[in-house]
Amino acid sequence: MLKKALESILTNQESEELISAFDQIGDIIIVRIPDSLLSKKKLIGETLLKEVKIVKSVFYQASPVEGDFRTRNLEILAGENKTETEYKEFGCRFAVDVANAFFSPRLSTERERIANLIQEGETIVNMFAGVGMFSIMAAKKKKCTVYSIDINPIASKLCEKNIGLNKLLGKVISINGDTSKIIEENLQDISDRTLMLLPERSDEFLNDAIKTTKDGGIIHYYSHIHADKKSNAAELSEKHYLESTPIKSEILTSKIVRPVGPRFYQTVVDVKISK
């Protein structure tokens, strides 16, 4: 449908490139536009707004996600200039602000995988929780306790709102602040399972993850890995973890979460640690 909508303004190759680079989040579309098509960005935005009936706003992502708060610059192309919307996933409702708090619809499969791995009664520390999607999906499925930490106050407020939007079997505790300080002061040796959803900085926070995780607990270690062959990415991520960790670890599994660039992948290694 989008190809057909764009055929009057883009070549088939340009259309393919564009469609692979946009996300629909509730009634908002965010599109990453190649430099070669920037002169047509307004036309692209207006076309997407017209053809995707439930969409009210189309934004061009003008910068990557960056900074401690993990935000990005968005430029309105068409429709309403508002960045808050509601997103639904696997029976959960989430209030999100696509400009002011980290959120990615491309992690839905991984969120479901983690929620299914969690056991009844577990305590989980989600070190970089954003608006609480992993945390809430876990507590929706299982009677667990999740400490949902983020340094961005807007993300933490949205997490609190999202706790109220969903009927949970377990409990989510939203904490705003620096995850290293929070773990050091209050959350040492309490976690059965720890999520490290900051792949570009996992090495920096690995010691904090070890501090909060019990002996015999599990760490989900996310990283960004360069691999000339896609089939080697998971193995390379295991090697990187083992070279980085200061503690005895048993690798349970590893996988590619998603591609993030040419020969560049977000990966996860699930490890059981021994203190």
Describe this structure in words.
The protein has two domains: 2-82, GMP Synthetase, Chain A, domain 3, CATH 3.30.300; 101-274, Rossmann fold. The protein is 32% helix and 33% strand. It contains nine helices and 13 strands. It has helices at 2-6, 12-19, 41-51, 108-117, 133-141, 153-165, 179-186, 202-212, 233-244, and strands spanning 22-25, 28-31, 57-61, 74-79, 84-89, 92-97, 123-126, 145-150, 171-176, 191-196, 213-226, 248-261, 264-274. Helix 4 packs across helix 5 (133-141) and helix 7 packs parallel to helix 8 (202-212). The radius of gyration is 20 Å and the shape is globular. The mean pLDDT is 95.
Element layout with pairings:
Elements: H1 2-6, H2 12-19, E1 22-25, E2 28-31, H3 41-51, E3 57-61, E4 74-79, E5 84-89, E6 92-97, H4 108-117, E7 123-126, H5 133-141, E8 145-150, H6 153-165, E9 171-176, H7 179-186, E10 191-196, H8 202-212, E11 213-226, H9 233-244, E12 248-261, E13 264-274
Parallel strand pairs: 2-3, 7-8, 7-10, 8-9, 10-11
Antiparallel strand pairs: 1-2, 3-4, 5-6, 11-13, 12-13
Helix pairs in contact: 4-5, 7-8
Features:
single chain; 275 residues; GMP Synthetase, Chain A, domain 3; 9 helices
State the low-pLDDT regions, or none: none
CATH top level label of the largest domain = Alpha Beta
- CATH-derived architecture of the largest domain: 3-Layer(aba) Sandwich
Radius of gyration based on Cα positions: 20 Å
Assembly type: single chain
How far apart are the first and last residues' alpha carbons, in Å?
54 Å
Overall mean pLDDT: 95
Number of discrete helical segments: 9
Count of distinct strands:
13
